[in-house]
Design a protein that fits this description.
Elements lengths: L7 E2 L7 H12 L4 E2 L2 E2 L1 H8 L17 H9 L4 E5 L12 E5 L2 H12 L3 E6 L9 E2 L9 H6 L11 E2 L7 H19 E11 L4 H12 L4 E8 L15 E8 L20 E2 L5 E6 L1 E2 L12 E2 L5 E2 L12 E2 L3 H6 L4 E4 L2 E7 L9 E2 L7 H12 L10 H11 L5 E4 L6 H13 L4 E6 L9 H4 L5 H19 L13 E8 L13 H10 L10 H11 L7 E4 L8 E6 L4 E6 L6 H7 L6 E4 L6 H10 L1 E4 L1
Parallel strand pairs: 1-28, 5-22, 5-23, 6-9, 6-21, 10-20, 21-22, 26-27, 27-28
Antiparallel strand pairs: 2-3, 4-23, 7-8, 9-11, 10-11, 12-13, 13-19, 14-17, 15-16, 18-19, 24-25, 25-26
Helix pairs in contact: 3-6, 4-6, 6-7, 10-11, 11-13
């Protein structure tokens, strides 16, 4: 801002992903933009033959797809209000539990979390005809949620049934999933991966949808999980014992870790001089395809010449697995036993993850119920994935400092799985869970326990899970201190006023609205609500450390520090910001200060803008 000008305002709405993608496109193809807008013809010229042309091409579509895509472009006017009283160790916790509609929550998390999440696991509502889907409102996405939670005047129900008799049975489910999965991809790191549990009803459509969003080349695996043993007496034809977990990478290759719980099929029946166990692998392989450069003689220590064995010398199919150069460099690893050459295959901790999750170590459907009952003493939820299953996925997909996201959190299985894995390997993984406050049944065990919503079950499970880990005592495997708690945020209306005037042309109504709009904050605003809303809109994490600063004179100043990104901002919500307060902060050119627009005179705003980055409400 130049001296004498007005400072930039804090964003009032979430940042649409399309806006940042358009800026990326502008950086790559500036010649495709004319007068600030994208010219598709110029873009086609720039891309040349890479653009598919012609009247017919493959496409995956459904009724309502256009509206689902447009829903992504609608910025949310909501915010996430902190609830310290329902949290555990709010001041220092870095885990996040968000109570609210997950589409609105993902939009709000977008700017702060884009490209930071290593793994996403979701177990979305299955489209079985008796389940529920989210009827997203294109005109007012926040409206149905406010009705469900009693935050608006009219009572409503966000969840509606999706019977198989509906002509849009599959379409409604796909329209619900598309914007959520699209945003999920934006939150993943380049080496990130998403796991999506699904049954046979939408498994084929889900893969087509994920192909469109992630790219079919980024399919890592279609995992098969054995969900039950025995039973099936009610099956009409074939007993379905399994579900699917589709795994997609943000980009290939996927960064995965060994499955340390796997039992090796190889017999490591030899031991070297250092006591390490190994087996022998033939150096020749007939299944890799013949290459003349990999068919060469090797002189053995016994003076014999070892050659690639061919069953039919006239039709060569075998070859060495190693090149001539590699044989020379690693000759000490070769074992010669006439007439074959072997390499030492040393025993490894764990093995490459497999697609069949059928062992009991992955749990069954009833194991998920047992996990919950062990904490609550009652069956508070009918269905929940086993902790063992999600813990396995976390173990093969995340390192000790990574972030795990679950935006269909249900009872909180993912949070418990991450906490238990951290205790086992000394990791400091963090989780972000999002769960809708769907009401529990009036006669349910959950209601009897005082848990009125699924989100309350989730929060209570996390509290009890943390307490149980503390009761077990002892440091985690790596000796590091675990995150002791979580911060709970609830989806709520913004603390910023929205423009109240209607387009009636009445000058008195316009003047009245203008007077009310002088104060940018709604009646009854709370400092922490405003602080975290500014953090979200400006791209700071919700796990930032909050400090109320001393020595700032008559003004109250807060600082939020995002330690992972090594950035912070200062916030003053007083009606007037004193010059001495500004000087006491000692702000530099890269420091961000946010205050009310009316709290600074033009001269004070200009002076502040010359010393720091200044934004106003």
């Amino acid at each position: 801002m130049s001296p004498g000008g007005r400072p930039e305002r804090v964003r009032r709405q979430s940042t649409p992903p399309a806006q940042e993608r358009l800026e990326s496109l502008r950086a790559l193809f500036p010649e495709a933009f004319r007068e600030g807008r994208l010219d598709l013809e110029r873009l086609r010229e720039a891309l040349g033959e890479a653009v598919e042309a012609g009247p017919e091409r493959y496409a995956f579509t459904w009724a309502g797809k256009g509206e689902a895509i447009r829903l992504l472009r609608v910025p949310t006017r909501a915010s996430l209000a902190p609830a310290p009283e329902a949290s555990v160790g709010f001041e220092t916790a870095r885990n996040l539990l968000i109570e609210g509609d997950n589409l609105e929550a993902l939009k709000l998390l977008y700017k702060a979390c884009a490209g930071r999440v290593k793994m996403i696991y979701i177990d979305p509502p299955y489209n079985t005809g008796g389940e529920f889907v989210y009827p997203d409102d294109y005109a007012d996405p926040l409206g149905p949620y406010l009705q469900l939670t009693g935050q608006s005047d009219q009572q409503g129900n966000l969840l509606t049934s999706n019977p198989e008799t509906s002509g849009r049975f599959h379409s409604a489910w796909l329209s619900m999933m598309y914007p959520r999965l699209f945003l999920a991809r934006q939150l993943l790191r380049d080496d990130g991966i998403i796991f999506v549990s699904i049954d046979e009803h939408e498994r084929h459509n889900l893969q087509l949808l994920l192909n469109e969003i992630f790219g079919e080349e980024n399919l890592v695996a279609d995992l098969i999980w054995k969900k039950k043993s025995g039973g099936g007496s009610d099956a009409k034809e074939i007993v379905v014992d399994h579900e699917y977990i589709l795994a997609y990478a943000r980009s290939r290759p996927a960064a995965l870790f060994p499955d340390r719980g796997a039992t090796a099929a190889t017999r490591y029946n030899r031991t070297d001089e250092e006591g390490r166990r190994y087996s022998l692998d033939r150096l020749d392989k007939p299944s890799l395809g013949y290459q003349e450069s990999l068919d060469f003689p090797i002189e053995g220590p016994d003076g014999r010449t070892y050659r690639v064995p061919h069953a039919d010398p006239r039709r060569k199919v075998a070859r060495w697995r190693w090149s001539r150069k590699r044989v020379e460099e690693r000759r000490g690893e070769l074992v010669f036993r006439w007439p074959h050459v072997y390499t030492r295959n040393y025993e490894k901790e764990g093995s490459r993850p497999r697609s069949l999750l059928v062992d009991r170590r992955f749990g069954r459907t009833r194991t998920g119920k047992t996990d919950l009952t062990a904490l609550f003493g009652a069956e508070v939820l009918e269905r929940a994935k086993p902790v063992r299953l999600v813990k396995h996925l976390c173990a093969i997909a995340t390192g000790p400092e990574d972030i795990v996201l679950d935006f269909f959190a249900g009872s909180g299985t993912t949070g418990q799985a991450v906490m238990e894995l951290n205790r086992e390997d000394g990791g400091r993984r963090r989780w972000v869970l999002v769960q809708l406050p769907e009401p529990t049944g009036q006669k349910s065990a959950a209601k009897a326990e005082g848990l009125g919503t699924i989100a309350e079950i989730c929060a209570e499970r996390l509290r009890r899970g943390m307490a149980r880990l503390r009761e077990k005592g002892g440091p985690p495997a790596g000796g590091e201190a675990e995150d002791p708690g979580f911060r709970l945020f609830r989806l709520a209306e913004s603390s910023f006023r929205s423009w109240p005037a209607r387009e009636t042309g009445d000058p008195e109504e316009y003047e009245s609205a203008l007077e009310r709009f002088v104060d940018p904050l709604v009646d009854g605003w709370q400092p922490m609500d405003v602080l975290f809303e500014v953090a979200l809109k400006e791209g700071f994490g919700l796990d930032g450390r909050v400090t109320r600063l001393d020595g700032t004179g008559e003004n109250t100043v807060y600082r939020l520090t995002d330690e992972e990104r090594d950035q912070s901002f200062h916030l003053c919500l007083d009606s007037e910001v004193k010059a001495e307060s500004l000087r006491s902060l000692g702000l530099g050119r890269d420091d961000l200060l946010v205050c009310r627009d009316a709290a600074l005179t033009d001269e004070a705003a200009a002076n502040a803008a010359m010393t720091c980055r200044l934004k106003t409400l």
